[in-house]
Batch of 2 targets.
Target 1
Amino acid sequence: MRRVVALAAVLLLCASTAMADTQTLRFQPHWVPQAQFAGFYLAKEMGWYQDAGLELEILPHGAEHPAPATLARQEADVALLYLTQALELREQGVDVVNVAQLIQDSSLVLVSLAESGILVPEDLDGQRVSRWASFSLQPEALFRTYGVHPDTVDQGATMAALRTGAVAAATATRYNELVELYLSGLDPDEIEVMPLEDHGVGLAEDGIYVLESTLRERPEAVRTFVEVSLRGWEYAFAHPDAAVDAVMDRVIQAGEPTNRAHQRLMLEALRPLYLEDEALRGPHLDRQDYQLAVSLMRNLGHLEWEPVPYEQFHQDVTQ
């Protein structure tokens, strides 16, 4: 009997130690539940964060939960941000650090209906063009590069303005709004696509960011989060059905007006942004990509201060 009691005590002590070693992280995605976050959802569902000693809380996400503000207020420990959003936070005095770059290229394009005859940037001069206020930098850079002056208007969450002819061109990501246009019944030959990447104004997009203080105080938790998330993304592209299952669970919980076909196509559109020769392209942020973003933002007046050195802005925690 005494041996049984002793064994129970040892097991209780081990369990208590494991619980004490588990760290909690709050993660803030930067838009509504969709396949853009499939790797994180899947890793969470598979229990990989917990197996690695992390209790990951994926915070509610969407327009009402802006990731830059949530991270700045320390209501999240980790956030997914666009490179330009992170540089704007630095401009505001928030010491964010890029600990992994997931999307190395720009997915942004300008789209128009083929019947409008907009084939090159010069054709946009004088046309009504919609763009998101929070992602106006790259279209602005394109217009300045080619010396064109379109009538720019704010863009909503759908592509209705383009389909109805209210605007001649609209901003889209390859993995979401462009997919939405195809699903609405438009054939590829009915749409003209102008990739901003092709005109020297494409910037790196999704990256994982933390505050300098978080990285200094909890380096192992941050490293573990990045490594498990990368594993989640590898698995998502290798097992797209499981990835879309995980996405749809989140979509249904949030009541998002989308469907499985849209999310499956979104995941496929994300594949070339994440992978090269079936291997993840991240998590390294290219120095030239950082310098290009800084240069464009300074030229357009989005940055007034000298940005921090690249080595301080990006720290690859997996090395």
Target 2
Amino acid sequence: MSNGLIPDYIEPYKLADRNITYKGSITLADLPRLHEALATDEVSIDVEVVFKRGEQKQALMSIMLDAKVCLVCQRCLDIMTFCTAGTYHYMFMADEKEEVLLPEGYDALELGVKDPFDLKVLIEDELLLALPIIPIHELNECQQLVKLDEPEPIETEVKRSNPFSVLAQLKRDPKA
């Protein structure tokens, strides 16, 4: 087990052979696309990555993420805290033929046997997918409740004279 640093690039087949576990935190400097989506730099991203061999000698990886980030509420435009946690399972494959070995609940990651793999990009992708499309507070937590515009008062109608009232007067008073 390795505590502290999560490596940028890994060789997943070698790590699976050695049953390596990485546990630590990631900073926003390592995740530039996520950084653009956040309201502040106040984040907490804890990661645990476990490599192992499966029952049929597949190279498997599990990532446990626990993150706390700040987003802008789209209802009140105030800062809100968003927490997410999840576990993601992957199987590394050299080609599509190994897809039959994919255990249930695992996603396939195809790469060559000797290719290094960018672990932090995968972690960043999972965090971006976990963010809400439209972040909003719960309705009772919004600092500034949205009020609907009240309708403008209806102006009193101007009384218009009836154009035929003159004819009615002429009819009553034929001398005019």
